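2024-03-11 09:14:02 INFO worker-7 job=invfold-0412 stage=load source=structure_tokens
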């Protein structure tokens, strides 16, 4: 769906790995709606992924490697992006998350805390680092928009989501806190989108993902929101139609977040 909502706008998309990822779909949707974009990911992810193909689809968008735990990398990314755009940035998608404990199979009650520090640094503190760098460099246009992707496990217990729940809770807190300061300075708005379980490379790595995705589908009056649906929502959040929305955690989950139980779940439990 293209309505030219982002005509003339310029933005950075973090985290596009392959065509299953929400960041990938968001890059496509932003470009289809008239935006110019820069793509970025960690150097190792750029080697593993297929991002150059996406760059070609999006008007030969530049691909700039950046480690989100490294201030100099973020400064370089923002500086090169502004040079490419010939001006400041209008929007940023933060689609970044990684848990070494989950990859290693460590249960929440037996976390390796050194690994946990890395999870928090990559998955949450990176948002603060990015916002702080953009704030100090005056890299964002007035009324710009920053969106971070999160999950409802920040508020509710999903045992197998493990330490990522803690990381998402911190991410949402940073959204509110930095949203205040960036709003006061440049009217830049910062929001998080709490998406349905989505079959991405990262999401599929969570234990019991298939069963939970099926459960969420039954618990959502509208069904699970797809990656494409989330991309379209991101476009609206980057557009001028949402200029007064900031510091919010926005549920994009087909109604899952406010549904106590559904007839389908009751029927399943009674079998």
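2024-03-11 09:14:09 INFO worker-7 stage=emit residues=271
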């Amino acid at each position: 769906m293209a309505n030219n909502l982002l005509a003339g706008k310029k933005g950075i998309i973090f985290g596009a790995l392959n065509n299953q990822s929400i960041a990938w779909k968001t890059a496509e949707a932003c470009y289809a709606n008239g935006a110019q974009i820069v793509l970025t990911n960690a150097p190792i992810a750029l080697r593993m992924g297929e991002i150059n193909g996406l760059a070609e689809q999006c008007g030969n968008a530049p691909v700039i490697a950046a480690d989100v735990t490294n201030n100099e990398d973020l400064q370089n990314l923002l500086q090169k992006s502004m040079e490419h755009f010939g001006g400041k940035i209008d929007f940023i998608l933060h689609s970044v998350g990684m848990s070494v404990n989950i990859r290693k199979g460590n249960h929440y009650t037996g976390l390796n805390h050194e690994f946990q520090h890395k999870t928090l640094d990559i998955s949450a503190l990176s948002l603060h680092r990015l916002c702080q760098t953009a704030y100090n460099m005056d890299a964002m246009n007035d009324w710009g928009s920053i969106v971070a992707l999160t999950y409802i496990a920040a508020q509710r217990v999903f045992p197998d989501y493990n330490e990522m729940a803690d990381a998402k809770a911190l991410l949402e807190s940073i959204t509110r806190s930095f949203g205040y300061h960036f709003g006061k300075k440049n009217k830049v708005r910062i929001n998080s989108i709490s998406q349905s379980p989505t079959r991405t490379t990262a999401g599929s790595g969570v234990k019991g993902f298939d069963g939970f995705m099926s459960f969420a589908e039954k618990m959502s009056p509208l069904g699970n929101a797809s990656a494409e649906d989330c991309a379209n929502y991101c476009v609206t959040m980057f557009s001028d139609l949402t200029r007064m929305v900031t510091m919010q955690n926005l549920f994009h989950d087909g109604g899952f977040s406010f549904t106590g139980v559904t007839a389908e779940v009751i029927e399943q439990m009674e079998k």
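2024-03-11 09:14:09 INFO worker-7 stage=report msg="The mean pLDDT is 94."
2024-03-11 09:14:10 INFO worker-7 job finished
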